Automatic annotation (TrEMBL):
Keywords: Transferase. Coiled coil: none annotated. Residues 1-34 form the GST N-terminal domain. This is glutathione transferase. One of its GO terms (biological process) is xenobiotic metabolic process. GO terms for cellular component: cytosol; extracellular exosome. Its EC number is 2.5.1.18. Residues 36-149 form the GST C-terminal domain. It holds the Pfam family GST_C. It comes from Zalophus californianus.
Length: 149
């Protein structure tokens, strides 16, 4: 539609080439989008929050070399001061294995993707977030995810 990737052919339908649209379709199809409107709102809130940080990380390779160190420092600061504490607190507050409703959701998958980026940038950044590390391990060890990784 917009002459760009990604594009997915699912069940004979060329799904539009917007990542979030594809992920939303997959989340609905595979029951990864909550049980009710409240859970969906939480999933959307967490996912959109992660998108802000994800976009900062994705454009990092395009950053001019003389600005790269400052950009990395900003990303690390935002991760450890803003984003990671929020998700650690969510997991701690309800004591369940996943962000919403104690079942795997697209928010958990997005978060694990982000945690892989975090580890790639600086593995020590997760040191103070044991629940996030456990979530990453738990989801990474799911048979379908493990097969993909």
């Amino acid at each position: 539609m917009f002459q760009q990737v990604p594009m997915v052919d699912i069940e004979g339908m060329m799904l539009v080439d917007q990542t979030r649209t594809i992920l939303n379709y997959m989340a609905l199809k595979y029951d990864l989008y909550g049980r009710d409107l409240k859970e969906r709102a939480l999933i959307d809130m967490y996912t959109e929050g992660m998108a802000d940080l994800n976009e900062m990380i994705i454009v990092l390779p395009l950053c001019p070399p003389d600005q790269k160190d400052a950009k990395i420092a900003l990303i690390k600061e935002r991760m450890t001061d803003r984003y990671l504490p929020v998700f650690e607190k969510v997991l701690k507050s309800h004591g369940q294995d996943y962000l919403v409703g104690n079942t795997l959701s697209k928010a958990d998958i997005h978060l694990v993707e982000l945690l892989y980026y975090v580890e790639e940038l600086d593995p020590s950044l997760l040191a103070n977030f044991p629940l996030l590390k456990a979530l990453k391990t738990r989801i990474s060890n799911l048979p379908t995810v493990k097969k993909f990784l």
